[in-house]
Design a protein that fits this description.
The chain has a single domain, classed as Rossmann fold. Strands 1, 2, 3, 4, 5, 6, 7 and 8 form an eight-stranded mixed β-sheet that branches. The protein is globular, with a radius of gyration of 16 Å. It starts with a strand and ends with a helix. The relative contact order is 0.19. The chain has helices spanning 24-34, 85-92, 109-125, 150-157, 175-189; strands at 2-4, 9-17, 44-47, 53-62, 70-77, 97-103, 135-140, 164-166. By secondary structure, it is an alpha/beta fold. The protein has five helices and eight strands, in the order ββαβββαβαβαβα. The mean pLDDT is 94. The structure holds guanosine-5'-triphosphate and magnesium ion (MG). Residues 18, 20-26, 52-53, 77, 79-81, 140-141, 143-144, 168-170 line the site of guanosine-5'-triphosphate. The site of guanosine-5'-triphosphate has 21 residues, from helix 1.
Length: 190
């Protein structure tokens, strides 16, 4: 969180985290396409030739004033491919909340767990406590065949009190609901 008292602006950072190809960039692309252009900035995506996130995606979203302050949300995605571990830690720096995007496919269960553990490790490395860090869980790709039942995903990924959403990011299902939950969580902390 960064407050510019002169402009009465509060900058808050929400990071979309998760295993490779789980749909983090798709979430942010949908948010960008669906929000009022007057309230959001450009979508900046640094991609490889194969459309994979190289460093991060970024967009800024404004909300109306709250108690005289203007909150600005900086939305980032991390690159999910295992080799970009250093980038993930850098992007996570200064985060006020995380949306963890899980891939519902049965063959991605292990990747989901590994990525969630790496999120905890990275938070700890930044001096934060994973257990009470603002987190929203999204179970994405609910449209595909061969997906794990929600109960199984919950058992493996969820923690007490963490808001959870099912989504089909490619169709925008559940995307804005997830974002709203993350925004509310971060604002209530503030
Ligand atoms: N069927 C289906 N495909 C999806 C869904 N969400 C994302 N995808 C597809 O999954 C692929 C990966 O999506 P991305 O959003 O690029 O994934 P990412 O998590 O940003 O991947 P990295 O940047 O490499 O970590 C793309 O082909 C998307 O179109 C979904 O809900 N359903
Ligand atoms: Mg991406």
């Amino acid at each position: 969180m960064f407050i510019n008292w002169k402009l009465r602006e509060v900058n808050l950072k929400i990071v979309y985290y998760g295993p490779a190809l789980s749909g983090k960039t798709t979430n942010i692309e949908y948010i960008h396409a669906r929000t009022n252009p007057e309230l959001r900035g450009e979508l900046i995506s640094l991609k490889t030739r194969g459309d994979r996130t190289l460093y991060f995606d970024f967009m800024q979203l404004e909300l109306g004033r709250i108690k005289g302050l203007k909150p600005k949300f900086n939305l980032y995605t991390v690159p999910g491919q295992p080799c970009y571990v250093a980038s993930r830690r850098l992007v996570l720096q200064g985060a006020d909340g995380v949306v963890y995007v899980a891939d519902s496919q049965l063959n991605r269960i292990k990747a989901n767990i590994v990525a969630l553990r790496s999120l905890d490790d990275n938070l700890r490395a930044l001096g934060l406590s994973p257990m009470d860090f603002p987190l929203v869980l999204q179970y994405n790709k609910r449209d595909l065949p061969g997906i794990a039942p929600i109960a199984l995903l919950r058992m493996q990924l969820a923690r007490d009190g963490v808001p959870q959403f099912q989504s089909v990011a490619t169709e925008g299902v559940g995307v804005l609901e997830t974002l709203k939950a993350a925004i509310n969580m971060v604002l209530s902390r503030m």
